[in-house]
């Protein structure tokens, strides 16, 4: 595996979940961020977690795996199930793989390789996105972005500060939507009002991030690390 991958797991049957987690832990470069046995808990918590893809069971009470996949549509999905009849539906929603239980380490490794190839392909090909601004539409290259803040006049808008010292006002876009668009490996939300590019982080403590940027007085530009975002931040930089 060329890069470390982070995943979350979901299976409402505890023995199956434990076995899946055990297999994952045997694959070098793969980290299980969290294992869920309740779909509702996953839906409540996943936005606070830093992960690359999901391995989901399908038949569960309250929500099934396809319901979860719709919510997690921006993440690669691998299904793990005892039933063969859902395979067609799984690939109709572009699942990366469909594994039949009982799982084996070799079969899981094959699925992880597919995920790795997909993520590598995405990182190579997606380097920009189109946004609505106060001056019309613009194409913004991700490498240009240093950090993003809530706009002063209207909190629905976001101000993007660029590497050349300029800024762009994005109209009516949420931080959640921005985090779906921006490459996960290159950007992180650090508090309720800011997203930063990982490239600008120079030092950090429990509450504060010192960037490699300078303010108007030529002092290092500092950012507050919010309590709710510390775990994700420290995991990314561990």
Automatic annotation (TrEMBL):
InterPro entries: CheY-like_superfamily (IPR011006), LytTR_DNA-bd_dom (IPR007492), Sig_transdc_resp-reg_receiver (IPR001789), WalR-like (IPR039420). Residues 6-116 form the Response regulatory domain. The keyword Signal does not apply. Transmembrane segments: none annotated. GO terms for cellular component: cytosol; protein-DNA complex. It comes from the Bacteria. One of its GO terms (molecular function) is phosphorelay response regulator activity. The modification 4-aspartylphosphate is found at residue 57. One of its GO terms (biological process) is regulation of DNA-templated transcription. Gene3D superfamilies: 3.40.50.2300, LytTr DNA-binding domain. Keywords: DNA-binding, Phosphoprotein. Pfam families: Response_reg. The keyword NAD does not apply. This is Response regulator transcription factor. It comes from Sphingobacterium paramultivorum.
């Amino acid at each position: 595996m060329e890069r470390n991958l982070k995943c979350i797991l979901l299976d409402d049957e505890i023995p199956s979940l434990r076995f899946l987690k055990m297999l994952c832990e045997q694959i070098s470069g793969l980290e299980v961020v969290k294992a869920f046995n309740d779909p509702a808990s996953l839906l409540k918590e996943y936005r606070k977690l830093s992960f690359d893809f999901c391995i989901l069971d399908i038949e569960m009470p309250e929500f099934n795996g396809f319901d979860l996949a719709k919510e997690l549509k921006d993440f690669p999905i691998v299904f793990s199930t005892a039933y063969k009849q859902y395979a067609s539906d799984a690939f109709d929603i572009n699942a990366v793989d469909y594994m039949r239980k009982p799982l084996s380490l070799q079969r899981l490794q094959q699925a992880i390789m597919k995920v790795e190839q997909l993520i590598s392909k995405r990182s190579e090909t997606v380097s920009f996105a189109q946004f609505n601004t106060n001056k019309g539409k613009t194409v913004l290259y991700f490498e240009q972005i240093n950090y993003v803040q809530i706009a002063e006049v209207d909190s629905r808008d976001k101000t993007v500060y660029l590497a050349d010292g300029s800024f762009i006002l994005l109209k009516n876009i949420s931080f959640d939507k921005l985090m779906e668009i921006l490459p996960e490996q290159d950007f992180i939300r650090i508090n309720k009002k800011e997203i930063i590019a990982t490239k600008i982080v120079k030092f950090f403590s429990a509450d504060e991030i010192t960037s490699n940027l300078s303010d108007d007085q030529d002092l290092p530009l500092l950012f507050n690390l919010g309590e709710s975002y510390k775990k994700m931040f420290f995991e990314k930089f561990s």
